[in-house]
Write a structure and sequence with these properties.
Elements (H helix, E strand, L loop, with lengths): L5 H9 L12 H22 L4 H30 L1
């Protein structure tokens, strides 16, 4: 004798499909991967455009410093706004 699980019998009896579970997308991992890929993509793009490697180092350093300055200002503004 063959045994059939009750969920299968319920499905056949009511002719309703069980709800599908939507796959959960982890946006944090997507953003982490995008951040990891940003420097190589930037260097490759600048190489194709003809910018020498030594100039790329200057450009990336200036961008890094500007990002750090903006982040520091934002954190300072955020903490002083709470007080």
């Amino acid at each position: 004798m063959v045994t059939v699980p009750t969920t299968t019998l319920r499905f056949l009896w009511t002719s309703k499909r069980p709800p599908k579970k939507e796959p959960q997308v982890n946006n944090d991992s997507f953003h982490d991967e995008a951040i990891k890929l940003a420097p190589p993509v930037g260097v490759s793009t600048l190489s194709v455009l003809g910018v020498p490697l030594s100039d790329m180092v200057y450009i990336m350093t200036i961008l890094y410093i500007l990002v750090q300055i903006v982040c520091t200002i934002y954190k300072t503004y955020k903490t002083t706004k709470k007080e």
